[in-house]
Fold this sequence. Notes:
Layout: H1 14-28, H2 33-45, H3 69-79, E1 84-86, H4 87-96, H5 101-111, E2 116-118, H6 119-128
Antiparallel strand pairs: 1-2
Main location: other
InterPro entries: ROP_DD
Subcellular location: Cell projection, Cilium, Flagellum
Amino acid sequence: MAQTDKPTCIPPELPKMLKEFAKAAIRVQPQDLIQWAADYFEALSRGETPPVRERSERVALCNRAELTPELLKILHSQVAGRLIIRAEELAQMWKVVNLPTDLFNSVMNVGRFTEEIEWLKFLALACSA
């Protein structure tokens, strides 16, 4: 990489953004940090809430989080008011907040969901889990 004479200009909001990202990563402790980071910054770029836990929620001691009202609230904010969501997109959101895949599959089976999911129906079934 060639060196240029141009000085590097760091936006003033970058340090705060990186600090918030680091704190969220510590709280969430995602299995796939790179994918989670991509989802985090993509959500920020779209003006959406990034996939993070509330401060009050304790991080599970195991690698998998438990489904809590706080995590359901995060998922609901990620869906951003849509009534229908694609299964692949929801599965990725589920994975990003480190929830068990078998629980996702169980809710999918009980709701008999296919490629397109009625979000409020899924949310209600997930709440009952």
